[in-house]
UniProtKB/TrEMBL annotation:
PANTHER family: AP-4-A PHOSPHORYLASE II (PTHR38420), PUTATIVE (AFU_ORTHOLOGUE AFUA_5G14690)-RELATED (PTHR38420:SF1)
Single annotated GO MF: ATP:ADP adenylyltransferase activity
Domain Ap4A phosphorylase 1/2 N-terminal: 38-179
Protein name: Uncharacterized protein
Pfam family, one: ATP_transf
InterPro entries associated with the record: Ap4A_phos1/2, Ap4A_phos1/2-like, Ap4A_phos1/2_N, ATP_adenylylTrfase_C, HIT-like_sf
Species, as recorded: Cladophialophora yegresii CBS 114405
């Protein structure tokens, strides 16, 4: 939570726990993901993508029709505020659980996936997805990111308008995309400073805030970066006159936040943190039309806050 701080002893404990994560976790994620996909328990299919450019901003449309089966919890459903009703994360199937990260989290394979493997980091108890990330959430995500040999990214869709489909707090992790294959670099990579927030990357159509992270950043630095970016998000919602929701993207090299005002579901094409980076998942043909009607750059301005 904002303003919350890690005590030194907590930090030490975290580092010890990070070292204790089982060797082979990264391999386990893949083998479990493949096994459950083969038996139909996970909904995943390899997908194809095409890269386009609009108003100087490059993005990729990835066609993932299998996500049609993914349920979306409405904005006003009790599941989002109290955890009552259908909550797939309260008692997840043991076959989907990969690891318990003390004290609060479970690492799962994701039942509806676009990337191989896609993982979920959920809170054990119900916490609303509209809450910001706590220090323990950040620590759990950071532990995994630092433990894996391959580069991974973590996304968090905070609140309904940020594109979250479930109301129980969950972060998502998957391998960092191959930028050669994409044909572009994810824009937060262009941020240079780990002191001053970057908010002016060229051709990004919407407000964005990025901090580079120092090499081997500790949890205290991570927490400060989170608070600083969140302050910028809140300021921009305040200036816009409304809004609370935002996307968080974390990799070992940087953290990025994007304030949101619309999920896109109201227009027929929802967008989460990945979409705001330019990694757009297209589930139905109609969604392509929504993105293209005024052009993706204009649609991005509707989803986020125009610069
Ligand atoms: P988001 O759309 O960001 O809220 O993420 C929700 C995530 O939960 C999606 O990535 C879904 O694939 C995932 N998920 C995993 N298991 C389930 C389930 N049983 N029902 C709905 N979503 C699920």
């Amino acid at each position: 939570m904002e303003g919350e701080s890690f005590k030194d002893q907590d930090r030490d404990l975290r580092l010890i726990k990070a070292l204790n994560i089982q060797a082979g976790l990264e391999e386990l994620c893949l083998t479990r993901f493949d096994r459950l996909t083969a038996t139909g328990q996970l909904i995943y299919e390899p997908s194809t993508a095409e890269t386009i450019e609009d108003q100087g901003f490059k993005l990729s449309f990835r066609f993932a029709p299998h996500l049609r089966r993914k349920p979306i919890t409405p904005a006003d459903a009790p599941e989002r505020t109290t955890g009552e009703g259908h909550n797939p994360f309260l008692d997840p199937p043991p076959s989907e659980v990969l690891l318990s990260i003390e004290p609060d989290h479970l690492l799962l394979v994701n039942k509806f996936s676009v990337y191989r493997p896609s993982l979920l980091l959920i809170t054990r108890e119900f916490v609303p997805q509209a809450d910001g990330l706590s220090r323990n959430d950040l620590a759990a995500a950071w532990t995994i990111l630092c433990h894996f040999k391959e580069p991974y990214m973590m996304i968090y869709n905070c609140g309904f308008e940020s594109g979250s489909s479930q109301g129980h707090k969950h972060m998502q992790l998957w391998p960092y995309p191959d930028e050669q294959e994409l044909g572009f670099e994810l824009f937060p990579n262009q941020a240079k400073s780990d002191v001053y927030v970057t908010d002016d990357i060229s051709n990004v159509p919407y407000k964005h805030f990025v901090l580079r992270l120092p090499m081997n950043a500790d949890l205290v630095t991570l927490g400060h970066a989170y608070d600083e970016l969140l302050r910028c998000v809140r300021q921009s919602h305040y200036e816009a006159g409304k809004g609370t929701d935002y996307n968080v993207i974390l990799v070992k090299e940087w953290m990025c936040m994007i304030p949101r005002r619309h999920s896109g579901l109201d227009r027929g094409a929802g967008a989460n943190s990945a979409a705001m980076l330019g990694l757009v998942w297209i589930v139905t043909e109609a969604e392509t039309e929504v993105w293209n009607s005024a052009g993706p750059a204009e649609y991005f301005k509707y989803l986020g806050l125009p610069r």
